[in-house]
Amino acid sequence: MNIGAWMCGVLVIPFAIVGVLFGIFKEKATNFVAGFNTFSEKEQDLYDKVAISSDIRNQCLIWSALMLVGTALSLVISQYVAIPTFIIWLFLFFKDSHIDPYKAFEKYLLK
């Protein structure tokens, strides 16, 4: 049993599903974005919801592709390929994470 392939493979489908849902529902899906859903309706109208949704979609699809590659390489090379795969994913995840929701979404402000 290749635990590395399982660890990466389990995450492929949820990331892909979330990416597809954000692609289908576009600005309606921003209700599920952590931090953004805490803003009032007036505050939310100040932001580009389509851009937020497309960025979340792209992030999730990239994460899904990364985990798919990690799964394949774990099966072909070694189960330990899952370790750098998760390190890359953690870097990508924390690169776009912010504690302050206003700072997290400031690049989406409508001008």
Strands, count: 0
End-to-end separation: 53 Å
Work out the helix count: 5
Low-confidence stretches: none
> Helical percent range?
55-70%
Number of domains: 1
**What general outline do the C-alpha atoms trace?**
elongated
Rg, nearest Å: 16 Å
Mean pLDDT: 93
Q: Give the biggest sheet.
A: none
Question: What structural category arises from helix and sheet content?
Answer: mainly alpha
Strand share of the residues?
under 5%
- H/E element string? HHHHH
Keywords: Membrane, Transmembrane, Transmembrane helix
Pfam families: DUF3784 (PF12650)
Transmembrane segments: 5-25, 61-94
Protein name: DUF3784 domain-containing protein
Q: What this model shows, in words?
A:
This protein has helices at residues 3-25, 41-44, 49-76, 82-95, 101-104. With 111 residues, the chain is mainly α. The termini are far apart.
Distinctive features:
66% helix; 111 residues; 5 helices; mainly alpha; transmembrane helix; single chain; membrane; elongated
Structure described in brief:
With 111 residues, the chain is mostly helical. 66% of the residues lie in helices and 0% in strands.
SSE layout and pairing:
Elements: H1 3-25, H2 41-44, H3 49-76, H4 82-95, H5 101-104
